[in-house]
C-alpha cells in the first residue's frame, strides 16, 4: 500500500498504521489508515471489493465394469467414485451431465447431483465410451468452475 499526502508526496511507512477489516471473504472490505508520525494527523477509512476467486476443478475418467448377468435382470447403479477421479474437487456442489455415449444411449442415465450412473436393464454386451460433464457450482468466495468433459470407458461382460 502506498500513502500520499495532499501534494502527492509518498509518506514513509513509519508515519502511519494500517488496519484491514472484513478482508477474508469475497464482498466489501475496508482499510483504515491512521497517521502516527509527527508530521501528519488523522485517519481515513476506504472500502474496496474482494471478488470471488477462480474455482479449480480437475477430473479424470476411469474404466468401469458392469455385470451382464446383473444388467440382464435389472438396472445397476455405479457410484461416481467408480467413474471419476477428482484431483482437485473445486468449491461448492457439483453438477453432472451425460454429454454423449458411443452407442445405446437409452440405457444410461446420470444423477445430476451425485454423478451416479444408472445402467438400465437390457444393456447389450460390449464396450462403451461415455462423456461426462462436471462443473463445481462455487460458493460465496468462489466463482462457478468451467465445465470439464471426461471420457469413461465402460465394459459390460
Keywords summarizing the entry:
157 residues, mainly beta, Immunoglobulin-like, 2 domains, 4-stranded mixed β-sheet, 3-stranded antiparallel β-sheet, 1 helix, rod-shaped
Describe this entry's structure for a reader.
Strands 5-12-11-8 form a 4-stranded mixed sheet. It has a 3-stranded antiparallel sheet with strand order 1-2-3, with no helix packed on it. The chain has a 3-stranded antiparallel sheet with strand order 6-10-9, with no helix packed on it. The chain has 2 domains: 13-50; 58-156, Immunoglobulins (Immunoglobulin-like, Sandwich), CATH 2.60.40. The chain has one helix at 68-73; strands spanning 16-21, 27-35, 43-50, 58-61, 63-66, 76-78, 84-88, 94-101, 108-110, 117-119, 126-136, 148-156. The protein is mostly beta strands and 157 residues long.
List the helices and strands and how they pair.
Elements: E1 16-21, E2 27-35, E3 43-50, E4 58-61, E5 63-66, H1 68-73, E6 76-78, E7 84-88, E8 94-101, E9 108-110, E10 117-119, E11 126-136, E12 148-156
Parallel strand pairs: 5-12
Antiparallel strand pairs: 1-2, 2-3, 4-7, 6-10, 8-11, 9-10, 11-12
- Compute the average pLDDT: 94
Strand order of the largest sheet: 5-12-11-8
The helix tally amounts to 1
Cα shape: rod-shaped
CATH superfamily of the largest domain: Immunoglobulins
Instruction: Estimate the helix proportion, in percent.
Output: under 10%
Stretches where pLDDT is under 50 for at least 5 consecutive residues are none
Helix vs. strand class: mainly beta
Through-space gap between termini? 65 Å
CATH class of the largest domain: Mainly Beta
Total E-strand runs: 12
Question: What profile does the largest beta sheet have?
Answer: 4 strands, mixed
| Total count of domains | 2
The second-level CATH architecture of the largest domain is: Sandwich
In CATH, the topology of the largest domain is named: Immunoglobulin-like
Strand content: over 45%
* SSE ordering: EEEEEHEEEEEEE
Radius of gyration using CA atoms only: 27 Å
Amino acid at each position: 500500500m502506498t500513502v500520499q499526502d495532499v501534494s502527492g508526496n509518498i509518506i514513509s511507512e513509519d508515519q502511519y498504521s494500517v488496519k484491514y477489516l472484513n478482508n477474508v471473504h469475497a464482498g466489501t472490505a475496508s482499510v483504515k489508515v491512521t497517521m502516527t508520525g509527527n508530521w501528519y494527523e488523522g485517519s481515513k477509512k476506504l472500502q474496496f471489493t474482494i471478488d470471488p476467486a477462480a474455482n479449480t476443478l480437475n477430473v479424470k475418467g476411469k474404466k468401469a465394469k458392469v455385470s451382464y448377468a446383473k444388467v440382464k435382470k435389472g438396472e445397476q447403479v455405479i457410484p461416481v467414485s467408480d467413474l471419476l477421479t477428482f484431483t482437485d474437487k473445486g468449491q461448492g456442489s457439483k453438477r453432472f451431465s451425460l454429454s454423449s455415449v458411443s452407442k445405446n444411449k437409452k440405457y444410461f442415465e446420470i444423477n445430476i447431483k451425485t454423478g451416479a450412473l444408472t445402467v438400465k436393464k437390457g444393456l447389450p454386451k460390449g464396450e462403451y465410451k461415455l462423456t461426462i460433464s462436471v462443473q463445481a457450482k462455487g460458493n460465496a468466495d468462489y466463482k462457478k468452475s468451467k465445465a470439464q468433459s471426461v471420457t469413461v470407458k465402460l465394459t459390460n461382460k
